[in-house]
Amino acid sequence: MGSDYLIRAAARDGSVRALVATTTQLVSEARRRHDTSATATAALGRTLTGAALFAATLKDGESVTLRIVGDGPLGGIIAEADHAGNVRGYVQVPHADLPSRPDGKLDVGGLVGRNGFIHVTRDLRMREPYTSSAPLVSGEIALDISNYFVVSEQTPSAVALGVLVNTDLSVLAAGGFFLQAMPGAPDDTIKALESNVALIPSVSQAIERGMTPEGILAVAMTGIPYDVLARQELAYRCRCDRERVERALISMGARELREMASGGRPVELTCHFCGTSYVFQQQEIERLLRQALGEEPPVHQ
Ligand code: ZN
Question: Per residue in 163-193, pLDDT tens?
Fold first, then answer.
């Protein structure tokens, strides 16, 4: 099995934007790092795939964070992706699980909860990040993301996200697509998209059967002339490092740091996204405290 990637395509007349991704490896990596239950793997994997597709609509250097907060036992889901194909995320309660639905599918909607919100934060680098939100409609993630596009951007879109989990909890296949009709798209094009999408009832099963993003795209765009514009490798990659953790500690403020320093013990912080732990000895906490108080310039630049 090859590594994960995403292709970006557009109808030749500009009326449709299409993105298709395979994410089997990165969802496997997320499961390995977070030890998620079968249903939590599906929920996190769909959200990671959605974030990867979303990020492909941004510009170089920009990133997006999806936060899905429902009233189910999973708590919240966070997924971040950037334009360079780095994807990471976590869920609040990784071991939460529910019995499968009567149709045999994992009950992602029940685990996430059907009441809540999807929050989308775009970090556009030079500008302040901004967040927009929409209510959840199903907790199944794909429908929630497409509804978000309708509510917040008034653009009709088809989003499919799938994760196939094996009985041993390993990830058999994962991926998704995002099709967006641009304002003014001809009715025939929209009708063609609708009937094409119906030919791909399960994107994860299509990937498991060996379909590539190019193959899925060809089905989705049947009858609509298009060009593939770009191909992007995708991987589960965390950007955390000691320097970022130090900056986060300093930003907590002098009072918190003084409290940590007075504990007299090393302080251990674990990255939610990747599980890496960072240990700070007492004298390091004291140094960060002096930096927070402005008594000492930061060591790193
Ligand atoms: Zn990390």
Answer: 999 999 999 999 999 999 998 899 999 999 9
